[in-house]
Design brief:
The chain is mainly β. It contains 2 helices and 12 strands.
Length: 146
């Protein structure tokens, strides 16, 4: 979902390690929701934060379930295109929770609840308004807008 190009790479040698690459920009060509995640990490030198850009809810779900006492998802923002959020333009909204459910057909859907009382139901990258037929399981539940 995110693309990088060799001419966008910042040449830093091995200051951050041989497996680390820094980029001046990345490209996002798909018009579907993605997530901006604040990840808190606890080390012997203290607590610091990294920001991750995750391209899909399955990757986010995996990250949330892999948290530990040393790595914690602090905040998630849903970044969605205009057709998805009905605003006509891209929005970045603080995410309060994600629930996962299943239709009678067996297809999964996700419900994104955002700060301010809004919410979206999606199957894949499509925002839908179909009637939900079965119970939901919480994937992520965060706090309010800091």
């Amino acid at each position: 979902m995110f693309r990088t190009y060799a001419d966008a790479e910042i040449q830093i040698g091995e200051a951050f390690g041989s497996d680390c690459h820094l980029w001046r920009f990345i490209e996002h060509g798909l018009h579907q929701p993605w997530f901006y995640v604040t990840l808190a990490k606890l080390t012997k030198d203290g607590k610091y934060r990294d920001m991750l850009m995750l391209s899909d809810v399955v990757s986010l779900e995996s990250l949330v379930f892999s948290q530990s006492e040393f790595v914690n998802v602090e905040k998630i923002q849903l970044v969605s295109p205009g057709y998805f959020n009905n605003s006509g333009s891209w929005l970045m909204e603080p995410l309060l929770s994600i629930s996962k459910g299943e239709f009678i057909s067996g297809d999964c859907y996700y419900i994104y609840r955002v700060f301010g009382g809004g919410g979206y139901i999606s199957v894949g990258a499509t925002c839908i308004s179909d009637r939900i037929e079965s119970s939901e399981v919480i994937v992520f539940e965060g706090g309010g807008n800091d």
